[in-house]
Amino acid sequence: MERALIISLKVLAIDMPLLALLGGGLGWLLAKRDFRGRELVSLLVQLPMILPPSVLGLYLLFALGRIGFLREAGFLFAFPAAVLGALLPSLPIMIQASRAAFAGVNRELEEAALTLGRRPWEVFLRVTLPLARRTLLVGLALSSARALGDFGVTLMVAGNIPGRTQTLPLYIYGQVESLNFARAHMAALLLVGVGIASLCLVRRLESGAHERLA
Q: In terms of Cα–Cα distance, which of 131, 114, 115 is closest to 123?
């Protein structure tokens, strides 16, 4: 179980900043910019939330298999594929949360800062981001927990290779197949604990936001 835990933590360590950057960036774009095709983009980024993991993994497998240099570099059924497999289904959660966070920022405050001579990036860092911070952290906590618990997409594109791509959910699956229910139970309890901790963090962030509004 130790090797599966280490791989899961490595995947999460890479996916968390990617979730923050990609999810936060797309959420900001959808919330703050009006452009042609915005509704189509919004629809597409939500698709991974409703597609079965097997379908998502299948098309991701086909897409990556057609990119020659990735195929030749051994991207599929390797650690990078595990990172991508966990990232893709969890990204919409972060996008939706960040979109709501940035849309909830009072535009008049941003415009007032601009009229005072602040540059757009200064307004973002000193006004927009602090006001959206709590909701962004909620989204990051939930999407990270989803990435840590991914099973179907990771299995499709990375396989279940012990010591290479076997994360904790895949480890549980393997132990159940081998009828080692005690080991599966221990790994499952660890993921349950992470889930509960994530929800407690979310509740604390939400209660803090409500107190500030009150």
A: 114
Nearest to 88 by CA among 23, 5, 166: 23
- CATH fourth-level superfamily of 2-213: MetI-like (1.10.3720.10)
For residues 198 and 144, is the Cβ–Cβ distance under 8 A?
yes
CB atoms closer than 10 angstroms to residue 213:
6
Please tell me the predicted confidence (pLDDT) of residue 212. Answer: 52
Residue 214, pLDDT score = 47
Determine the Cα–Cα distance for residues 210 and 214; give it in Å rounded to an integer: 6
Cβ atoms of 158 and 165 closer than 8 Å: yes
Tell me: pLDDT of 120 over 90: no
Mean pLDDT of 137-149: 94
Q: For 59-93, how does the pLDDT look when each residue is reduced to its tens digit (9 = 90+)?
A: 888 888 776 566 666 788 899 999 999 999 999 99
